[in-house]
Write the structure tokens for this entry.
Amino acid sequence: MTDVHVEWQGKSQAMFERMLQEVPEAVRDVFRGNLMGLLQQKSKEGVIFEDHVVEVVNEKVPEPFKSNILKAFSLMGGVDMNKVSEIIEKFSGGQESLISILHALQDQFGYCPAEALLMVSQKKGIFLSTLYRLVTSYQAFRTEPPRKYTVTVCNGTGCHVKGGGAVLRELEKKASGNGSQITLEKVRCLGCCDLSPALIINGQVYSGSEAQAKISGILGK
Amino acid sequence: MKINKAEDLKKIQKEGMKLLSPATLRITVGAATCGFAKGAGKIFEALKYEVKKQKVKADVVTVGCSGLCYAEPIVEVIRSGKPRITYGNVPVEKVSELVKAIKAGKFMKDLVLMRRDEEKSPLEKGSVIKYIKGKLPEALSGIKEYRKLDFFKNQTKLVSRNSGTISPERIEEYIALGGYTALAKALSSMTTEQVIDEVSASKLRGRGGAGYPTGAKWKACRIAAGDKKYVVCNGSEGDPEIGMHRSLLESDPHLIIEGMLIAGYAVGAQEGYIYVNDRYLLALERIEQAMKQAEKQGLLGRNIMKSGFSFSLKVKRGGGAYICGEETALLNALEGSFAEPRPRPPFPATKGLLGMPTIVNNLETLANIPLIVLKGGKWFSGIGTKLSTGTKIVALSGNVAHACWVEVPLGMRIKDIVTLFGKGAASGKKIKAFQAGGPSGGILPAKALSLKLDYEQLSKAESLLGSGGLLIMDEDTDMLDMAKFFTDFFADESCGKCTSCREGIKQLKQILEGIIDGQGTGEHLSLIKRMAAVMADTSACALGKTAAVPLLSVMKHFPQEIEKRLMRRGA
């Protein structure tokens, strides 16, 4: 089987391979040949879109494999589109519901995934550009998934006066490198000025020197 | 049970009293954000575990913050007939020992902070709870009564009266200390005009920054025409300092709900929104829980206390933008739009949320309302100074020995606040400067500590009362670095709507960085002044108008620090 003339769009190839994983190994090659042929028929000039793969699954794959595959698709990239749809439905209304939806998305996924925003845009009839501006103009929202460690540094005035600026500069250096495991978040006040300079590492509050030790520990790992 | 009349409130009051001053034992843990940061969660769990293990019958409960952030985690013990004992900086390892002492009827000397013999309330004469019955036990006489401590002696606790005493998760305890009686009074015996008159007579001014008279704002909304009206509570609190709104919401959420209900009744609104800072998760949880309780008791919803007045409340979590402190930007955020200010007029009182008449009040302003309704505007106007009435919650942070928040009458000398509560600089060095009112307030030199904390004196000194933050800087602080910190802050927070603000701040930042690098000249300084004037004249909101204030104040009060870094001509 050859796919020399095929051009995969978006995640379509990954979806195709994911689909085959759900098929028992003994019949996998047969399926691969048949389904690939079908995909080529559907595609125009050999360009395969994600929708084509979904159509093939719907038409040709028997249950229970079909449901499993569609579920696997929805989880691709860590974004469960069913969950996104649930969240959008939970908040009625148009524009005024957007910030609550964005918070719910971020609580669910740790960030606001592009594919989720696309769905919000379609279901609520809001321009994607408007959504993007909301996500990027408010400080609460992230467009990238958080890394292994989230370090939240207080960039409030109280902490700055007590040396928070230096802590922040050092962390910025450490977190910026390629392959860094730290997502750095700057916030205005953590509400524990008594501990300044204060920062939160994966949910736990640390102050000044103990924070430094903790971070060195993480980076040493 | 639905509360329909004053007698129903009395019944719940009794239930709440039994919780606050129980026949057995009540152990409380200060569990606001400041407490949790220092391990209150672990202390709470350990207490519950130890109480069970050692078979001590006690109601272990979380309360809010009493302002003593530096002494967290705080544990308090209330035993029938004995004074309320406060322990500070309690380590989790000592919990077992503490419970053992409690069981034996003793106390732990090395952890004890103070005792409280009775509970006073601004709502009533005399005491509302007498903890102590009979004579004070000899063993306890060595512990200071709280009113003898500088920290409490010099405060006037009005809006923070319940903070740290009641559980924010129990409506009965709020009601026990006089909660919702102001609402009952307003609904049963006052017309909406009378409520507004009392607020006007109190001379209460907005606690957010501008200090606009609250009564006038309400009146404008009351007479404005609209199918619907809204009350919006501004709990955006984007200032980079201790969150007093956070603390109030976490410690006494029902107070805010009651204030909003009365405001709604007065202006003729049926709906209210509480806009809460996006990072205040605990505050959001507690206010939502409080709303559910109030609904269950019939204090929120339709036909409240059979008065015909209906009011519903929604909590909105913000998106995180400093500019939402500005009321029209906040309205945009509530509508799910971009946080940028609208042109004024029209003012929100005539055309606000969704185009309807709206009052936007600061959270602390609303927290004052129940007290004004109960005690009268005249009584309230007697507190503070002639033009700045009432109290203000002040948060002390920065280089201060005791980071804390306190409530003091307006007009108190700033120096007293810093020395009595903050106990001077944390470093033990001399205080060089301070800043009042958040980023938009100017940085003032130490000699200005003799100013009084009120709207007039601070604005005359080109600073402001603002949100009530007091930031302390010691003599090692680099003032140019502070100016840069605030300029960076405004560069981050400018919404970009007005060119003069967006571009102006960017240019200020570049010039300032040049000066710090030793590239500045005297001409740069006059350029900064000219630009600041243009920004003040042409920006739509206070953010742009005041963005240059920190830098200008450093130039004015600390010129020697700038001059020594200017390039010498010809060098």
Q: What stands out?
A: Chain A touches chain B at residues 94-100, 102-103, 133-134, 137-141, 155-158, 160-162, 165, 187-196, 198, 205 (CB under 8 Å).
